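User: Modeling request: complex.
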Amino acid sequence: MADDVLFEFLHMEMVSHVYKEQASRDDIDKDRITCVSILEGMGFRVGQGLIERCTKDYPTFKDDLDVMKFLCKDFWTSIFRKQVDNLRTNHQGTYVLQDNKFALLTQVSSGKQHLEEAPKYLAYSCGLIRGALSNLGLESVVTAEVSLMPSCKFQVVIQKS
Amino acid sequence: MFSPCLCGFPPTVQRHAVRPIGHAKLPLGVSDCLCLSVCLSALRWTGDLSTVYPAFRLMTAGIGWMDGWMEICKVFFHLSVSVILSPLQNYPLYIRSVPSQSELKFHYTVHTSLDVVEEKISTAGKAMAEQRELYLGLLYPTEDYKVYGYVTNSKVKFVIVVDSSNTSLRDNEIRSMFRKLHNSFTDVMCNPFYNPGDPIQSRAFDSMVSAMMVQSS
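Assistant: Request completed. Predicted assembly structure:
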């Protein structure tokens, strides 16, 4: 019953811990960047492990779009108990995942309040997506943006090597 | 023109290939000794001094060098079941064989079988292919063992090499072996102390693999 909430609390604490740690060291600007990259790194490693577990019984993916669909449906469901609401693509390696009620942001606010704090709470999830894709063989760059809480958009750009 | 090695054995292949400049005599070093270099390689591959050293002694005895070479050959061609993994960059993360010798041969086998695996992944791209592929076929008609492959969605490849004399191992047993391997690998992957790409050192994984090999042999 309380399962979902456990991770939400942990995540909030994680974010505040990372920021508190960094605040006691360097100046403010460097803080933001390091903190975000620390959180993203954590998410990356977890994403790698999680995707291994999620794809264990799944047949091989046909192409990138198939991978993204899996990410939006099964992967998102296993973590946030819901699917991504909207997936858009330009068919050239850029995908936008839109979640209208992002689980990690629902408790922060439901409007424009605390908008500037939102990126902190999205770093981990960006890492999660990047880690998952990296283990599936797709190098990517993931960014997130919020215009109205708790809905957010993750932009995934697959790097063609 | 060419001098024999320190042990009295005919010169190395490299030195056969090199043209002597004038008639300059190159100093003979320990590395020029063919017997020693082969034994050192054998030692590196097997890590087993007890089998390699007697062979080396025989080789350097002068009279019995042929017997020494026979001993070294026996070290290499010992057949067994082995389990190897490799990730995206195709280097092995884990390799294990029973008995724990002659891993070099399996390295070689696995590397060649990886080509077949790659081929299968790329051709099965369009069709909704099965996650696993079995029985890559006898790669070497002369050698009598079978190679099975399995690829996960994260492009990690598992390879099992089985002695052909071990005909009791059936298709579904191999499948279940791969399933167990995949499950244990997933556990290793989820271990926060494991960095993806490192060699696998998990004891749980080791014990699972040992149990599996004991069961199949």
